[in-house]
Design a protein that fits this description.
The complex is a heterodimer of chains A (182) and B (143). Chain A has helices at residues 7-10, 81-85, 92-95, 161-164; strands at residues 4-6, 14-17, 22-31, 38-44, 52-58, 64-65, 70-72, 79-80, 90-91, 99-102, 107-117, 124-131, 141-145, 151-153, 156-159. By secondary structure, chain A is mainly beta. By secondary structure, chain B is mainly beta. Chain B is built from two helices and 13 strands, in the order βαββββββαββββββ. Chain B is elongated, with a radius of gyration of 15 Å. Classes of the chains: A mainly beta (182), B mainly beta (143).
Amino acid sequence: MSTLMLVADLTKRPVVTLGGEAVAQIKDTVFDAAGGQITGFTLAGRGLLSGPLKQSLPWSGVHALGPDAVMIPAVEVLQARDAVVDKGEAGSGQVRGARVLSDAGLELGTVLDAVVEGGTSGRVAGFHVATTEAMGRHERRAFLPAHGRLAMTGDTLVIPARLAERAVDDLAAADLRKGTER
Amino acid sequence: MMLLSQVLGLSVISAEDALPAGEVAGLGIDPLACRVSELYLKSTGSGDSVPWAQVRGMGPDAVIVDTAAAEAGRESPHSRAHKRLLGKRILTEFGEDIGTLTEVTFDPETGAVGDLYIGRDPTPVPGSRMVGLGSYALVLAAG
């Protein structure tokens, strides 16, 4: 099971125990410093009036990241908010808007969102990018695959030029969209 | 095998004095044991329950329970999560919503749960796949 999903779509997804109780919803997704892996989630309470929770969900506590819910073994896996936020440097807010440069020094565009692998992986599979003319593409938005280690600081992402050639217009075209469509 | 929908609304009669104890409002299910754990009654106050062990017989026309059980049921705590089982959201352990519960079959003798029917899918899922039942969803293990 490795369905791909946009990180923006994870927001508000319910966090459900294997016992069938919804204990929270996703507020924000936190990545490791290199932006290659989800390290956890900050949480909000469920319902209209509930705000952010003091607890967070480290990736180690995730049973599976699914298209309709984030499954956890039990409520005990939730930890203090600092446990997740301190470890990861790049919140999804910082990933969005980052400048994308090819290793040939060409500015390719800006990151609209990250694409992650669901299930038990939590790996960043690619980025949804608003492209510049440098990409030479008709479509102004494209999905760029991310393989292996990423070179990423807070506001800049450098990717190999050969990956830029493998950009696709939508996740379905690359057979990547499975599971995020409903 | 009996259907959950078939049992709902059946009158519950106490074996000792043949007095009506109420109507079946629902079944409580132990997902890991894969069996019926209790019977919820309506119309005798709010939300009585009878443990499965006190159910003497269950047929097409009535459910017979021990008198004592029906009375004890009034005080026994029970989980709201198990009420309204039909229509319950079903999630796989991979976090995929696969529909709502439309029918449950069970053995009226032993209380063992047989199959679960999901949405309009005519092919049932074995009850042994249940891993959890809460107020939000019924969770199934990978098939």
